[in-house]
């Protein structure tokens, strides 16, 4: 065999082809739009609370769903949200099963993270389905009430305090990681920034930095409340998104901190739409076999 002869790479497995398929790409973009809708609505509700015009809706997923259901053609909008959330869950599930389309995407930590997100969005999707079926606008049970109930159940398990405490620590760590990665603009690795105009790129960067930082702070705050629930053996300490946001108003910064966090969540929702538009995707229509070295590994899409 000649030394310069290329050696063909192994054909893609069926699972890898599914993960890189056009259908999964579409699911990811639809799911990101659904995420954007939820965070924009949560941000708007939280801003209203910070300004003192509390409409009674909770600034969390249930409040967002309730607000959507109150609009004209509310039930149709809810079913559209169901489709988007289901697409998001399936996309994350494909990443958990086949790995992410990024260098190092097969690491167990990345797969486990994708699995956790798949379960998270599947649970939200089921809640929206229940609301859409009954045709109500309440958005289901308040998130704070649900958080306290689940925390109380787990605390009663053998070793329940340890489980709750570990979950709280994990949530804190996740929040800090999101905050740091947002400030370092790591999210830009996922985007086709070369297709953006300079002004557009600056706007998207601001949305990603501020929005991601807000999500990180809120996640860490919720994790701290769960950790306190374990330490004090008091499920009432566990806060959902709404109560976590409201607790910001009790700080020395007052309602200003709540409004800042609310605006940040709203901006993250807008960033989600930008990510749906410019997110990098796997190449489609390429041959199943390619010569070794034919593709530059540096051009692989970024991590989610």
Automatic annotation (TrEMBL):
Transmembrane domains' residue ranges: 32-53, 73-91, 112-133, 162-183, 204-233, 253-274
Residues covered by the DUF1206 domain: 30-98, 112-184, 210-279
Ranges for region Disordered: 284-304
Sorted UniProt keywords: Membrane, Transmembrane, Transmembrane helix
Pfam families: DUF1206
Superkingdom assignment: Bacteria
Stored InterPro entries: DUF1206 (IPR009597)
Keyword set includes Cell membrane: no
Keyword Membrane: yes
Protein name per UniProt: DUF1206 domain-containing protein
